[in-house]
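Why does residue order matter? Because the sequence determines the fold. Keep that principle in mind as you read this record.
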Amino acid sequence: MEDWPTVKKQETGDSENETMIEQMEMVRRVASIAHQLRAEANVKVRQPLRKLVISVQLSKELMAILEDEVNVKTVAYSDKTEDFRKPLVEVQGLRVSLDTTLDTALKQEGFSRELIRSVNALRKKNGLTINDTITIALSGDTKEVRSTVETFREHILRSTIAQSLEWAGAQDGFEPISIDGTKLSIRITKV
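Structure:
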């Protein structure tokens, strides 16, 4: 029998890997704190927010991962106390502040995401697959809802694999839903 082969440690790359692992752990830690702040503010993860401020510097790639994970438009680094607003968490020298203020644009984007989720849940309930194209009919609208749907129409159509989205009076076959207290009815039809 022969001895097991010996593996030489790479001279370079080990410290890079360790640094990346440490930074990814920091991303997970910050994301966990941000999700905690969302929960305390009663803001769903599907609702986009404007800004997350952190006291640790990360690469652009890791900031982008954090933006996606926490669903914020911007992640910013700061070492200045005045840049951190409530809600704020400080843990072992790490400061994380999440801007939970919802302006009209953020509310509309969040509403459109909830509508997409509702349509896709209805697709699943009806046994439709990703290969099935649908039409969407909505009922029970207000001016604000119409404005939101029109603003995000193309995104809604793409995300639900729909060829059209129309407004109609509630009729048979409509499913009632509620999004942020707004009552709507949806009907989807396979094309």
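The CA atoms of residues 53 and 83 lie 8 Å apart.
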